[in-house]
Specification:
Blueprint (H helix, E strand, L loop, with lengths): L1 H25 L4 H11 L3 H8 L3 H20 L16 H19 L2 H25 L13 H24 L17 H24 L5 H17 L6 H19 L5 H44 L14 H6 L2 H13 L2 H24 L7 E2 L13 E2 L1 H24 L8 H24 L3 E3 L28 H10 L3 E2 L11 E4 L6 H20 L2
Antiparallel strand pairs: 1-2, 3-4, 3-5
Length: about 550
């Protein structure tokens, strides 16, 4: 009955806030002002929730419903009443509701609503007031932040977040820490040591909230600030529990994803997908798999930049690979995550080794693509050995093959080092090490064969075009596809006859593009996924009895 009352009061509160916003808009308040009013005022809903809800499902029901409402409103460019100053170009309203939903499930599931209040108040009060004060006082931009961030706004974010977190922690200590008790609490009540620790913790959380707000583009601060603050407090100060690996994985992967966004390495959906993949890797395989995943993601970008400096920028201009999208993240992640899940469920060490092998294959393949683009010798078709256009999957070169080997060996070395350093019961001796190397090399070669045999290749209209979407072929990039081995010769001849080929027809104006070889549905992402599945299948056949 208490949850039903809480739901009724929650609806009354939210409708009252929206009604007040509408009334003020009719009396001349600007659109940005009404948005910020709602953004700040809805933070007060958490007080109603904390006083009445006992079930996490009841607490999360209303914000979960607003995920759908806000998503529809954003798509139709209407009622974006919780967005930041970016307006309706970003789904900030959707992120706001997602954050409230996840935090409600987490903190009420712990029986500690005060833990969720930390993140919610930093988002609602700190972020909301920071935007208002930043616009009025922010004449000096925040260095390196971009997106209209100002020093005044960040200072306001820091101050308001500190006051909010300190108030929550001191009030929770005075009330006896209902629910989960932090590790620094010596006992119930507001003892001097607990008060001092609460203030220091609040300061650390406020700094984290300010950094996250400044680093988050496109309305993502409505996700990063509340989830980051609540998650950071839970990992640092609450006793370890079943939730700890998942929260730690989200925090670590989120930090990397934000950095990748700032560097232009990921799209926003790609970054969100990378956070999920990284969190699952940390849950299933701990530090070793997570660090291997980071090695896969980061090392190829580093290798590409080193090659660009060594060989110059002329050849780099031939490759126009943009930030990784969600489908690219998933194509390289699903096979190894399946093995990691099998390891977590069974404890069989060879599942962990095969998961490392799948990551080694992705790393070797990506190294081949990034480094092979700088080969001074033209690539050749891996099946026919005929010259290929630079930038097409299925082409191999000595430099690309060397990069494949280095990527596979480095991944195997790192995998075995991490497994043993963190006490994982994996096979000792050279067998597992060589197995991971073999997976890496075989996976990259299989990717190139699939690029030639299956991946779609189009002739651009008028004989003009370039390599299209960059891929991960063994030494050269994305691939040309021929339906069967019998068709390889004809497909290769077509490729040789016309140097203007692309691997993806544009979404608009594709009428003039002719499919030369392969299957239209087989993209570079599909090839990556298929090669990953092949490596896992072959690895399991060899490794498991």
């Amino acid at each position: 009955m208490q949850d039903v009352v809480g739901m009724g009061l929650s609806l009354v509160y939210v409708l009252a806030v929206l009604a007040a916003s509408s009334l003020l808009a009719r009396h001349g308040m600007g659109e940005e002002g009404t948005r910020k009013l709602v953004h700040v005022a809805l933070g007060g809903w958490w007080v109603v929730a904390a006083l009445f809800f006992t079930s996490p499902w009841w607490a999360a029901a209303l914000p979960a419903a607003f995920i759908v409402v806000n998503a529809l409103a954003w798509r139709k460019q209407k009622l974006a009443f919780m967005a930041r100053g970016e307006g309706e170009d970003t789904p900030g309203t959707v992120y706001y509701a997602v954050s409230l939903t996840l935090i409600a499930l987490f903190s009420f599931g712990l029986g500690a609503p005060y833990v969720g209040a930390l993140g919610v108040f930093c988002m609602a009060f700190g972020d909301g007031l920071a935007a208002v004060l930043g616009r009025r006082l922010g004449r000096r931009p925040l260095p390196g932040a971009g997106g209209g961030k100002s020093l005044a706004g960040s200072a306001a974010m820091l101050g308001v977040s500190f006051v909010s977190c300190a108030g929550v922690l001191l009030a929770a200590a005075a009330a006896g820490w209902e629910g989960a008790v932090p590790t620094f609490a010596a006992g119930a009540g507001l003892a001097p040591g607990v008060a001092a620790a609460s203030v220091l913790a609040a300061l650390g959380l406020a700094v984290a909230a300010t950094v996250l707000e400044a680093a988050s583009p496109e309305g993502l601060d409505n996700l990063s600030v509340p989830l980051g603050v609540t998650g950071l407090y839970a990992v640092l100060f609450l006793p370890a529990g079943p939730f700890t690996p998942a929260v730690a994985g989200v925090l670590l992967s989120g930090a990397v994803a934000l950095a990748a966004l700032r560097l232009g390495l990921l799209t926003v959906p790609g970054a969100l997908g990378a956070v999920g993949v990284g969190a699952l890797a940390f849950v299933f395989g701990g530090w070793p798999l997570w660090l291997l995943l980071m090695w896969f993601f980061g090392s190829s970008n580093v290798a590409s930049r080193l090659m660009r400096r060594w060989r110059g920028g002329a050849q780099a201009a031939r490759k126009r690979s943009g930030p990784r999208k969600l489908r690219q993240v998933l194509a390289n992640s699903v096979p190894f995550l399946a093995c990691a899940l099998a390891y977590a469920g069974t404890g069989e060490a060879w599942f962990l080794i095969v998961a490392a092998g799948a990551l080694a294959a992705s790393t070797a393949d990506t190294w081949a693509s990034e480094v092979g683009m700088y080969s001074r010798k033209p690539p050749v078709n891996i099946v026919t050995r005929e010259p290929m256009q630079l930038g097409l999957s299925g082409g191999v070169s000595p430099l690309g093959l060397a990069a494949t080997t280095v990527g596979a060996v480095s991944s195997a070395f790192l995998a075995m080092l991490l497994f043993h350093a963190f006490g994982f019961a994996v096979p000792t001796g050279p067998t597992a090490f060589l197995f991971v190397i073999a997976c890496g090399i075989v996976g990259s070669v299989v990717d190139s064969f699939l690029g030639v045999l299956l991946q779609a290749k189009y002739r651009a209209p008028g004989g003009s075009g370039a390599g299209g979407e960059a891929g991960n072929g063994c030494g050269a990039g994305a691939g040309a596809d021929v339906g069967t081995l019998a068709g390889v010769g004809a497909g290769a001849a077509a490729l040789a006859a016309d140097g203007a080929l692309v691997e993806a027809a544009p979404s608009r104006g594709a009428a003039g593009y002719t499919l030369v070889s392969g299957y239209a549905w087989v993209t570079n992402d599909a090839v990556n996924l298929l090669s990953g599945i092949a490596v896992v299948a072959l690895g399991l056949l060899v490794a498991l009895p």
